[in-house]
Design goal:
heterotrimer; A: 247 residues; alpha/beta; Rossmann fold; 2 domains; 4-stranded parallel beta sheet; 13 helices; 8 strands; globular; C: 478 residues; 6-stranded parallel beta sheet; 4-stranded mixed beta sheet; (Fe-S)-binding protein (chain A)
Chain lengths: 247, 218, 478
């Protein structure tokens, strides 16, 4: 994927960020603005449709996704602070609208979707100046960021730009944390076992914080860390970067 | 059960015609591109096969029967099963103290008990070797039956150094195997093994415990 | 198998709870899967070669599916010409009946069997035992599982759920005159001694098929132990059972399929034996079976084939790599699925064969992490098919068995409500605003929240939405 440096981008905040992590969403916007990019946040946005899509309710997913399609009319990149939602929009919207009158529109929007860190690194070539105290962290890669968006190195490259941050990678970075949307409540015991293994992996790094680019994973991991009274905190990468670089 | 045949094929045909599959071309370039020089082929085959406990002996066209004889004697092998193609060569080199030579010259039905309980080693020729995977090509014949390379605890295989292929694919396409496959063709890449108990490798589970490849240089 | 149990629903959640509680089991699986994943990774370290080989493998399987009816006819024609007798079975009951009639004709008392997943699908062992025929598993892992009166927990490594100690106890208990030993070489030797006598005595050998070549009428089998060669060479009669998707068009299609299979499955460049069988014993030949039979089984596969998307399920070459890489399989092991095919491929294949009524939960036992899709050597879109089956279970659009069986009015209403709230900006603004402010008041005892909060704190609503913050900060709307 190559992309000229644009003057304006759309920002799709995602429903989880909207409800649970608006500060992280705002931090993403400010990181983009800090690079001289104008950010447009269509107020009509809600959800990419993934919850219904993955639950087998495709008509409902289509209805919601169609409402989003209507928002991104200009030929600007659509930046998403979530690998999972970005994957839904980039990979599954074209499938969802295949053979419908919205097919062309869905494919056009899908072609402009970027995961936030991917956009910051590959398009904006962002340079970060760390103003924080020395800190050891680890990175949790979401499955969809890795495998649907191909985002593997970009977030770690960003974290490594931070002079005082020591990034210790997980032994099983590629392994799912057990969130899986409705999976977490449909198969709560398996999900619990999975997040238990993930937390053990996180603790083995000796990190004080786990940073991730997806709020589904974060709800799961931080929820389990807190329930287990573990001292590690979890944070969205946008907010982490924002805090580190603004002193 | 011809009813089943008709109903299965009818259903498949109807489904396929309703939704034909678009097939990308099969590009065998990845296999065709695997090439090694003759020396590299032997080195690679040997390294790969040794990694799975295959043993190697070096010999020439003239001395291989003696090399086999001395090896078997040293290993304490008492009986050696062989086929007709190499019977004369073995006989010419045999000396007192070497294992008893037994020809596989009758149907297995009259020979099963001895085959399963009374034979230490079997010797066969091969059609060649494969560098990519470290494999021998066996092509059993009436003169060299299938069980010779399977039942005795030691299998000795003769491999001519000038019969090495790069890949399995190359061996079958260059020799046009598709125009006539034998009753049984085999690739053998080591002695019998298993990892079914806690992924721990153990050799000699049902087939030969040892595989000895005699490389015959021309 | 279609039997009296076919109408019962399999409770995956319950079985997985039992599995999760067994720390020994979890340890066994974790260790084994880690080993298999790293061995596979070594085999495909050259990513250019991996992509080229995988594309070739996928094309071979797709080409076979594109001509499936013709290739099966050609396979039958060439096998028949070679002297192999071909039988067709629509159901596992028909396949079992065919196998039994052959065995009864030759007055069989003892059968030795090489590893075959289709025979597991047929429940062949139980069926034959009901008819007074002793059938002995000869693959070491299958032998262990049979001694333990259990079923395989992995399609490639059937006894992977057990450790050496457990197997040592089993052998001591079940094999006559066996001493207790934890030495793997000695345990293996013990099995060798027992089974050698059986190979020599059996009247019939049963095997599966890894690939059947239409062009030449050749049955290809891969294995490491030599038991497969024993079963297909020593007894006077050999019966091979295969699913109808196992056919490939040309002999040259075999090398890429086998290379992908062995490297993906166990990280071996090749198995010890690649066994290619093209006919029964010919005149003048001194060994090999006098009769070779090939049973081609449908058991729902032609129904899978009927759907253009679901058809890709039939590309599978049964390497089991999807299991090895599945985080759910690694946690619960193979038995929790209570199916012949566990793990990701099982979650898409078994519901299509046995129906969404009985197996509707299987496609949900997945986080959709796509680890399986990433490593599948023939590029099966496993997760895409999983999603499709979830949709078929509640909203039938095709001929998938028992499509619509999981439709629930309550669930449908919930999603309708969700869609209404998310598809209209005004409705969303009200709903999200309320949720952000009042969501934290939801009690942890609510049905779904309770499952969540078993090991996690409640998700904390932020109090205001990103929409509101963006408006406050003057972020442009258009």
């Amino acid at each position: 994927m190559s992309q000229e440096r644009p003057s304006t981008v759309y920002y799709f905040g995602t429903c989880l960020i909207d409800l649970f992590y608006p500060e992280a969403g705002m931090a993403g916007i400010e990181l983009l603005q800090g690079q001289g990019v104008r950010v447009v946040f269509p107020q009509g946005q809600s959800c990419c449709g993934q919850p219904a899509y993955n639950s087998g309710y495709r008509d409902e997913a289509r209805k919601v996704a169609r409402a989003q399609l209507a928002l991104f009319t200009e030929d600007w990149p659509v930046v998403v602070p979530s690998g999972s939602c970005a994957g839904m929009m980039k990979k599954h919207w074209p499938e969802l609208f295949h053979g419908t009158p919205d097919q062309a529109r869905a494919e056009a929007v899908a072609g402009r979707v970027w995961e936030l860190t991917q956009f910051l690194v590959n398009v904006l070539d962002i340079r970060l100046e760390d103003k924080g105290e020395p800190l050891r962290i680890t990175w949790h890669a979401s499955c969809h960021a890795q495998r649907e968006m191909g985002v593997v190195d970009e977030p770690k490259a960003l974290l490594r730009q931070l002079r005082n941050v020591e990034l210790v990678e997980l032994a099983r970075e590629k392994e799912c944390c057990g969130f899986g949307g409705t999976f977490a409540v449909r198969h709560p015991e398996i999900s619990a076992a999975m997040v238990g293994d993930k937390i053990a992996d996180i603790e083995n790094t000796g990190a004080k914080a786990v940073v991730s680019g997806d709020c589904g994973c974060l709800l799961n991991i931080t929820g389990a860390l807190e329930a287990g009274k573990r001292p590690v905190r979890g944070q969205h990468i946008a907010q982490f970067l924002k805090e580190r670089t603004h002193g | 059960m011809s009813d089943a045949r008709t109903s299965i094929l009818t259903r498949l045909r109807a489904s396929r015609d309703a939704h034909p599959v678009t097939v990308p071309p099969s590009d065998f370039g990845v296999l065709a591109g695997m090439r090694w020089s003759p020396e590299e082929r032997l080195d690679r085959l040997r390294t790969m096969m040794e990694a799975v406990h295959t043993e190697f002996l070096d010999a020439t066209e003239a001395d291989w029967p003696a090399v086999v004889r001395d090896f078997l004697r040293a290993e304490g092998v008492k009986t050696l099963l062989h086929g007709t193609p190499i019977a004369a060569a073995l006989a010419a080199a045999w000396t007192p103290g070497a294992p008893e030579r037994i020809a596989y010259d009758q149907p297995v039905e009259g020979f099963k008990e001895r085959l399963f309980t009374g034979i230490d080693a079997g010797i066969t020729t091969t059609l060649g070797g494969i560098a990519h995977t470290g494999s021998l090509i066996l092509w059993p014949t009436p003169e060299e039956p299938r069980l010779m390379s399977l039942v005795p605890p030691v299998h000795v295989a003769l491999l001519r150094a000038d019969r090495l292929y790069d890949t399995f694919w190359q061996a079958m396409t260059e020799n046009r195997w598709s125009q006539g496959m034998p009753t049984n063709a085999l690739l053998v890449s080591g002695p019998s093994k298993t990892a079914d108990i806690e992924q721990t490798l153990a050799y000699g589970v049902h087939g030969p415990k040892r595989l000895i490849v005699v490389v015959v240089r021309v | 198998m279609v039997d009296a149990a076919a109408h019962t629903t399999i409770d995956f959640a319950k079985a997985s709870r039992t599995a999760l509680a067994d720390q020994q089991l979890r340890g066994n699986f974790r260790r084994a899967m880690d080993g298999l994943m790293s061995k596979r990774a070594v085999q495909f370290a050259d990513s250019r070669e991996w992509h080229a080989m995988r594309a070739l493998g996928a094309s071979v399987r797709l080409r076979a599916l594109s001509k499936l009816p013709e290739l099966l006819e050609k396979l039958e024609e060439n096998c028949t010409r070679n002297g192999i007798r071909v039988h067709w079975a629509s159901t596992t009951a028909e396949a079992n009946a065919i196998v039994l009639s052959i065995m009864q004709r030759v007055d069989t008392r003892l059968v030795v069997k090489g590893k075959s997943m289709v025979s597991e699908e047929m429940h062949l062992n139980a069926f034959l035992e009901e008819h007074g025929i002793e059938i002995l598993e000869s693959d070491l892992g299958e032998y262990i599982v049979q001694l333990d009166e259990a079923t395989p927990s992995h399609i490639i490594m059937p006894a992977i759920h057990m450790n050496t100690k457990q197997i040592a106890h089993l052998f001591r208990q079940k094999i006559k005159d066996a001493e207790y030993t934890e030495d793997v070489a000695r345990l293996t030797d013990l099995a060798r001694r027992v089974l050698r006598a059986k190979f020599a005595a059996a009247e019939v050998g049963v095997s599966g098929v890894n690939a059947a070549v239409a062009e030449t009428g050749t049955l290809c089998l891969v294995e490491n132990e030599g038991n497969g060669r024993m079963c297909t060479t020593v007894p006077p009669v050999h019966i091979a059972v295969m699913g109808l998707e196992k056919v490939v068009e040309r002999l040259e299609d075999v090398p890429p399929v086998i290379s992908l299979l062995t490297r993906s499955a166990t990280g071996q460049p090749i198995t010890t034996y690649v066994n290619m069988i093209t006919s029964p014993r010919k005149d003048g030949e001194r060994d090999g079976p006098r009769e070779v039979h090939l049973v081609i089984l449908d058991n729902g596969r032609s129904n899978v084939y009927a759907d253009a998307e679901l058809r890709d399920t039939l590309r599978c070459i049964r390497c089991g790599a999807c299991m090895n890489h599945c985080p759910v399989y690694t946690k619960v092991g193979g038995h929790a699925y209570e199916a012949p095919y566990p793990g990701p491929i099982g979650k898409i294949l078994v519901p299509q064969i046995e129906g969404l009524d009985r197996r509707g939960e299987m496609p949900h036992a997945c986080t959709m992490c796509n680890a399986c899709v990433e490593i599948c050597p023939v590029k099966i879109p496993i997760v895409g098919i999983m999603g499709r089956l979830r949709a078929e279970a509640v909203h039938p659009s095709s001929a998938v068995k028992d499509a619509g069986a999981r439709a629930s009015r309550t669930e449908a209403l919930v999603w309708k409500g969700w869609a209404a709230a998310n598809a209209s900006p005004l409705a969303y603004r009200i709903a999200s605003g309320l949720a952000a402010r009042l969501g934290n008041m939801a009690p942890s005892s609510l049905p779904l929240l309770k499952d969540w909060t078993n090991v996690r704190t409640k998700p904390r609503f932020a109090g205001r939405t990103l929409h509101e913050m963006a408006r406050e900060k003057g972020i442009a709307d258009v």
